[in-house]
């Protein structure tokens, strides 16, 4: 008897992950490849093909009924390149039919919830929040890159830490253990501002995100400056999420002003709040993740859900496209990682 399966792919600038999943939500095989962002990866099609082939090899003989690819950079101008890479990889792997392309934001939400609609906050190298409905982004906030946005992200943390170190050296700010720790991470002498500046400018901006754990570690060890930076990062992430949450509010739910003479409408039946999903390395664990988690619960009365790997979210969307019940998607999210 032929086993039927769907494929889920989550492709970022650094790595691509793929899973083959049974129609009842069991992971049959998984694979990895290089980055497949159409703007920053050397050969996106090859990365996608490698991840596809690895997942299919582990799954064994299957009939692939559908697939969803979530590819970073596939929105707007990047979509044609992403779609071309996806179709090349699909054909090279010997698969028929046409997979669906969406972005990594919608996939991240589906990696945390089987609901049809809700909100996702992603914080890793960059940072973005979005409202998602039916597997597509309907509104987003931030995600503008390190120069103009990505507030509270890993790169933002690294840059904020370096700024604090330079301020401490030249007398504009208080002393901080970050001076020694970040200099060591950059491989330069502590206390030499020009060496720090050269090292920072000599790295691609995304690489400065690797300094985020240094800042968080100093905060955990009691450094007041680092703790302040971490707290501000959490607040900025909550503000980004809040902008999306506020825009999603139903204006018809606002009660009439006192003295307006308008009788209030009967209260609608209570319904469960839409889910909020937290995704990305910065929100997986640690003090910033804990602060954001607590902030969402306190401000919106929602206990946020942490996303599993994005490839499972993409596979969940593929199951939903085929008309599979939400239970199959939910089972996929709850299964232990392979």
Automatic annotation (TrEMBL):
Which InterPro entries does its entry note? ATPase_BadF, ATPase_NBD, Euk-type_GlcNAc_Kinase
- Whether NAD counts among this entry's keywords is no
Q: According to the lineage, what is the superkingdom?
A: Bacteria
Entry annotated with the keyword Kinase: yes
Which stretches make up the ATPase BadF/BadG/BcrA/BcrD type domain?
A: 7-315
Question: Which SUPFAM superfamilies does the record associate with it?
Answer: Actin-like ATPase domain
| One Gene Ontology term of the molecular function aspect | kinase activity
Q: What is this protein called?
A: N-acetylglucosamine kinase-like BadF-type ATPase
**Which organism does this sequence originate in?**
Streptomonospora nanhaiensis
- Name the lineage: Bacteria, Bacillati, Actinomycetota, Actinomycetes, Streptosporangiales
């Amino acid at each position: 008897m032929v086993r039927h399966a769907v494929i889920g792919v989550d492709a970022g600038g650094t790595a691509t992950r793929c899973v083959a999943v049974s129609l009842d939500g069991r992971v049959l095989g998984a694979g990895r490849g290089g980055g497949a962002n159409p703007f920053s990866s050397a050969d996106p099609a090859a990365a996608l093909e490698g991840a596809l082939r690895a997942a299919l090899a582990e799954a064994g003989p299957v009939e692939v009924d559908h697939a969803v690819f979530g590819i970073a950079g596939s929105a707007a101008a990047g979509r044609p390149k992403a779609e071309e890479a996806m179709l090349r990889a699909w054909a090279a792997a010997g698969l028929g039919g046409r997979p669906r392309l969406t972005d990594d934001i919608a996939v991240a939400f589906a990696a945390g919830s089987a609901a049809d609609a809700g909100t996702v906050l992603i914080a890793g190298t960059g940072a973005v929040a979005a409202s998602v409905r039916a597997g597509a982004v309907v509104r987003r906030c931030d995600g503008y890159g390190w120069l103009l946005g990505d507030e509270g992200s890993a790169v933002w943390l690294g840059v904020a830490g370096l700024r604090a170190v330079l301020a401490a050296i030249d007398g504009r700010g208080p002393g901080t253990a970050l001076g020694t720790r970040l200099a060591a991470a950059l491989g330069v002498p502590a206390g030499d501002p020009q060496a720090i500046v050269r090292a920072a400018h000599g790295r691609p901006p995304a690489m400065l995100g690797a300094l985020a754990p240094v800042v968080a570690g100093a905060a955990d060890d009691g450094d007041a400056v680092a703790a302040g930076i971490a707290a501000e990062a959490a607040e900025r992430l909550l503000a980004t999420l809040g902008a999306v949450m506020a825009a999603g509010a139903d204006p018809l739910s606002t009660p009439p002003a006192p003295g307006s003479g308008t009788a209030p409408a009967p209260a609608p039946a209570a319904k469960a709040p839409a889910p909020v999903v937290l995704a990305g390395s910065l929100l997986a664990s640690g003090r910033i993740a804990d602060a954001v988690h607590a902030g969402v619960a306190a401000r919106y009365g929602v206990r946020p859900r942490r996303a599993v790997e994005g490839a499972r979210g993409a596979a969940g969307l593929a199951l939903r496209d085929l008309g599979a019940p939400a239970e199959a998607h939910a089972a996929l999210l709850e299964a232990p990682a392979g």
